[in-house]
Design goal:
By secondary structure, the chain is α/β, with parallel strands linked by helices. Helix content is 36%, strand content 18%. β4, α5 and β5 form a beta-alpha-beta unit.
Length: 162
């Protein structure tokens, strides 16, 4: 199994590090970081940096707005990220969509619900395909919260290198 000692979950805009997904991940990976973020995107990114510092080999799991944060961090610091997992990421946010960041090649997995009415899959997929060169985009029968999907994922297998 891959070294997944550096593991962080970044929650969405109206969630917290104590939400459903964070708790589910902490049950399987007690060492995972699940910090709380608040404020603007700029403020949240500034809050994220001290957790990741200059350490390599991070596996980042980001949900919705946290997916946007994880994507932006990865594009700005590709040498620090070994794998990126995004859950219904808010890639349509202007800071990403209007100023498309440089492409990156680390393994990236995106789960996005066909029934997502918050962040439409049709808008996210082309953006993701332009930025993430090693992309596994998984369309699922779920809504924006991806509650059923998150519970069904084989997280240990997903976090391994393949």
């Amino acid at each position: 199994m891959a070294n997944i000692n550096r593991l962080i979950f970044i929650h969405g805009m109206v969630s917290s590090g104590q939400g459903f997904k964070a708790k589910l991940l902490r049950r399987q990976f007690p060492h995972i970081l699940t910090p709380d973020f608040d404020g603007s995107l700029e403020a949240r990114m500034a809050q994220l940096l001290p957790f990741l510092r200059d350490q390599p080999d991070w596996t980042i799991i980001g949900s919705s707005f946290g997916g946007l944060m994880g994507a932006l961090f990865t594009c700005q610091h590709p040498g620090q990220v070994r794998k990126l997992i995004l859950l219904a990421p808010a890639l349509t946010w202007p800071d990403f969509a209007d100023a498309l960041p440089p492409s990156v090649s680390m393994p990236t997995v995106i789960y996005h619900g066909r029934g997502d009415t918050v962040i439409p899959l049709e808008a996210v997929r082309p953006l993701a395909e332009r930025v993430f060169l090693n992309l596994d985009f998984r369309e699922v029968d779920d809504d924006h919260r991806l509650q059923a999907t998150v519970q069904a994922i084989d997280w240990p297998a997903l976090l391994c290198d393949h």
